[in-house]
Specification:
Layout: H1 2-35, H2 39-56, H3 58-78, H4 81-118, H5 125-155
Helix pairs in contact: 1-3, 1-5, 2-4, 3-4, 4-5
Length: 157
């Protein structure tokens, strides 16, 4: 039954790697690009980016979250306590990432998406983007450690 642990962890890693990559690009590239844009361009680029990402990324993130939970459960049932702890810790970090996204980033996404689609520029666009950008190092860290914990689970099978 360790095959269930291996398969669920491997596919969770693949899905989380997509999210990790997107967040790393945000950290290393997009923040600098956005700083160089005028406010109207910033709203259009960021708002439309969130428009598409908020519709497409759940197709990656939801299965990855479910598979991380499956990995943790299977690791406790058919694996060892250590495997269970490693994968469950990853799940806790992933849920933390989701809470940060849902409570802080998502409302900003909604605001900037609505502004882009209405061709408006919120007066606080720079502070909204600064708040969103301030979350990226935390998000990258949470997903990175989650990935490492799932990879450790795989390595120790």
């Amino acid at each position: 039954m360790t095959v269930i642990i291996a398969i669920s962890a491997a596919f969770a890693v693949l899905g989380l790697a997509v999210i990790f990559g997107a967040d790393v690009v945000g950290l290393l590239v997009q923040r600098s690009v956005y700083a160089d844009l005028d406010d109207r361009s910033l709203v259009q680029v960021v708002g439309r980016g969130h428009y598409y990402a908020d519709r497409r990324m759940p197709g990656v993130g939801i299965p990855a979250t479910i598979l991380t939970a499956v990995t943790a459960a299977a690791a406790f049932i058919w694996g060892t306590t250590l495997l269970g702890i490693l994968s469950a810790a990853g799940l806790v970090l992933l849920v933390t990432w989701l809470l940060v996204y849902a409570r802080i980033a998502k409302p900003i996404n909604i605001t900037l998406t609505a502004a882009a689609l209405a061709d408006e520029v919120p007066a606080d666009v720079r502070s909204l983007q600064a708040r969103w950008d301030s979350l990226v190092p935390l998000r990258v860290s949470l997903i990175a450690v989650t990935l490492l914990l799932l990879l450790a689970t795989l390595a120790l099978l």
